[in-house]
Each structure stands twice: as C-alpha cells, then as structure tokens.
Amino acid sequence: MLLSIVPLLLGFFVATGLALLAHRYMFLGGFFLFFVSALFTIPSIAFYLILLNVTGRGYATAVVVLTAYTLVLIYRNVSTGLQEVPGDMVDAAEGMGLTRRQILFRVELPMALPTIFAGMRIAASSTVGIAGFAFFAGAGGLGAEIFADPTFRGNVVAASLLMVLLATALEIIVLFIQRAATPWERAVRG
Amino acid sequence: MILAALGPFGDAIDFIFNERESQAGTVRVGGLGEMWELTWTHLQLSIAATLIATAIAMPLGVWLGHIGRFQFLATSISNIGRAIPALGLVVFFIAFLGVGFLNVCVALVLLAIPPIITNSYVGIRGVDPETVDAAAGNGLTGRQVALQVELPMALPTIMAGIRISLVSVIATATIAPLANVDTLGRPIISPNVYGTAGQLAACIVVALVTFGADALFAWFQRAVTPEGIKLAERGRPSGRRLAFLSSKRSMQTS
Fold first, then answer.
1. 0.90 exceeded by the pTM?
2. The complex's ipTM?
C-alpha cells in the first residue's frame, strides 16, 4: 500500500513541477514529454533490475521506478489541463491586474484541476499494478505472494484480487480528494 | 578495458556478445546466438498476441463507435484493464490452464485488448460529425461511412492504442518463462543459471527491444495517417499534438 502512495505523491510533485516549468518556458515542453514518455516505455522488470545496480536492493529502488512511471501520466494531464484554460480567462485576469504568479495559482491551476486529477486517478491504478513487480527489486509487496508459488492457485487469486481492490480503492480516494478540492465543479453541474 | 570500467553493466554487455559457462558450470550460456534466440521467441509471442488482440478489439471498437452506443462499456473496459495486474493475469492463466505458448499468448491478448477497444471507440467518436453527415448526404451507406470515412480519420488514434498494447505486451512477455516459454525473461527469472550478468543483460535487451518497437510503430502510425489529416495538422501551429491529444483523451475517460 505504502509502495503505491509514496510514488504517487512524489510523482505528483515532480510532474507538476516539470509541467509548470514547461508552461513558463515553452521550449522545454517537447523535451520533457519525450523524456517522461521514454521512462514509461522501459519495461518495469527491466527497470527494477537495471536500477538495482545503481541504487541497491530494496524500497528506494522500487519507489524510484514507480515514481518514474507515474510521471508521464500526471505530466501529460497537467500540461494539457493548463493548455486548455480558455485564453479569454487569462486575458481577463491580466486585465484585472493579476501578476503572472497570481494568474497561475488563482486562475490556471484551479481550472486545470479536474484534468490533473484525472491523470492522478490513472496513475493510481496503474501504479498498483506495476508495484506487483516490485519484489524483483527486493521490496516485497503483493507480487511476491503471487511469484512465490505460481502453481498454487489460492495465493494467486487472493493476491490478484487484493491488487484490484487496492487499485479501485486508491482511485476512489483520489476521486474524493478531487471532489473536496473542486467544490465549484459540483455547483456548476447543479 | 572500457567494459571493466562499467562494472556490472560492462559484464552484462560482455554477456550479450560472448557466451560463457553457466553458474553451475554445466552448460554454456549467453552470447549473441542465445540472446537472439530468446529475443526471437519474445518477439513472436508479443507480435502474435498484439495481432490477435487487434483482430478482435479493433472491429469491435470501430463498430461500437460507429453505432455510438455502449459508451460506458467501451470506456470502463480500459479502466478495468488498467486495474488488473499484468503479473496476476499471466500467473492466473498458468495456474488454471497450464503452461505453454498458447496459454501465455491468450493472457497477453486479454492484456492488449482494452487499450485497442477504447482507442478505436474514441477515435471513431472523435470524427467530425459534419464530415459524417456530408458522407451520408452523398449517399454512402452506413458500412461505407464507417469503412471509408470514419476508419481512415480515426486511424492515428487506433494506431496509438495498438502501440500502447504492443509496448505493454513486450514488457509483460518477460514473465512468460513462468509458463516454460523461453523469452528474454528467462535469464531474468533464472539468475541461478545465467548469473546476475545474464539477468542484467536480458533487461538491457528487453528495454532496447521495447524502444525499438515503440519507435518503429511511431513511424508506422505516421505512415498510415491520411494525407488530409497531416495537411490539416501542418496548417495549425498546435496541430502536431492532435494524435497525442486524442490518445490522451481516451485514457482520461473514467
């Protein structure tokens, strides 16, 4: 469980940071997108084992890998969320005398929140699945239960079901945070 | 030596090119010959699974998109697909159906289907309704509209879905040795035979294969995009993101 939440939070901060940088300095966008997509393409087992030789066995390796995988999902949604803010709104905010920083935090980011949270939900459920391979890095987790004895059916079914439940639970938690963070969304929908 | 300076990585690269004695000293492992054999099986398995999945999922997604119903089904199937752990799915098949190429292939097909269905559906739904109306007004039948208008315009999005599936299938085919199919995962899962060098070597090769397949498919995706869409993209400064945006949208629907 912790193995999924820590990378999710780390990924959120790193990806949002990158997206904000790219939002400010447009030329970085393409490079960042290529970089995070490339990270996502590396097969997870290979990623775990290659990193083993750099960061050593255990928890840290698993967290680094899982964070790397959340990056592309969150980054993409943060940057599209920011891009889809209507230009009129930014103009209006500028006209009211808001500084760039104020526009970002009071107009653009709140407007982009639903898209950002959609990315967080995707990242939440996929992180649980990839964490299943974390035992290759010596970090344990439910995957170890499955791998311990693949021919024994009980543990395979139980651990897989638990992973599905965990993924669903995490998605629902993120959904609740989203509803709490964007009260105006509900007001609009009535 | 340069390889020695790279530590474990140098040893792994050496493993790829030169064969050596196994950990127990009974057989010879590694070298280009064996690595190629493993890679070949890996590719066969991945390509077979992706092709079968495409043959099942693409017509279904296109049809659902064309009639414009069951949106809930088309979008929730990808959510379910994402939540089911790949490891659990493959091991589940081995535990209940036994080992072998076919069983792993079926498990990988199931893994590859959701992104293709969702992207086909979203791609078809994303076609400009006015274009569809114009085609219908020109007297095209429903089938003609689907195959000659909607399908070509949705191709970039559909291809993006197949690309996602292919990459994840190649990644997951790494655990196929659990079912006695000797893919590149064999050295990863049996380090007691291949040693840590073999394990790392296989990881490097798997990563390279994935990158290669992804790049090749990106090119293919570009090649099958109709000229008209490419022209329209060139017209708009932000148009280059079109294919990417629509594939992203498919992932957001939850």
1. no
2. 0.73
